[in-house]
Specification:
Elements: H1 2-26, H2 29-148, E1 150-152, E2 160-166, E3 171-177, H3 183-193
Antiparallel strand pairs: 1-2, 2-3
Helix pairs in contact: 1-2
Length: 198
Amino acid sequence: MPAMLNEQMQEMEEVSKELLKVLAAGGAGNLLKRSLDKQEKMFDKLLDTQLTTAQLVKDLLATEEKVAQELLDREEEMQKSLQKVQALEEALRRASDEDTRLRAGSTAARRELEELRAEIGRVEDDVEDDSSVITSAAYVAQLYYKISRIDWDYECEPPQIKGIHHGPAIAQPIAIDGSQHSKCFISDYLWSLVDTAW
């Protein structure tokens, strides 16, 4: 736009020169003076137009720069928002995977709980069946004690045989190494402790 104004100014100067030549030859001084005044006014308007145009171009460039900066800021905000959305989608995927894993674990835990309940039921049934055996075993143990009067030490390690025989006169400890004696000897020895006077 400024180049176009320069071309117009050059054309005006050429026209002015030609007019001066014409006026000088024809002797019309007033006409020349009016023409020069008009030309001066036109130059003033032209300079004002150039200044206005330069200011408009400057304002336009400032506005373009501002719009470009706003566009960059918006694009940066959009990238940040996109990253947040991607992070949320990833967190949602992980949460979904964790939920699926927990549901599977819950199902397995329920199945294991049901198996344990069934096992407890079987054990309770076995305990009920064994209670009669335990009762009869306790009866037999009491009967053996009544006959032999021996309190056995059940915490000793095999082949050791330990206990206390409560004889008619005094209590006598029993300590036999089963690896040193035969089973027949041990049986005979223990029966020899039993009081035959009933």
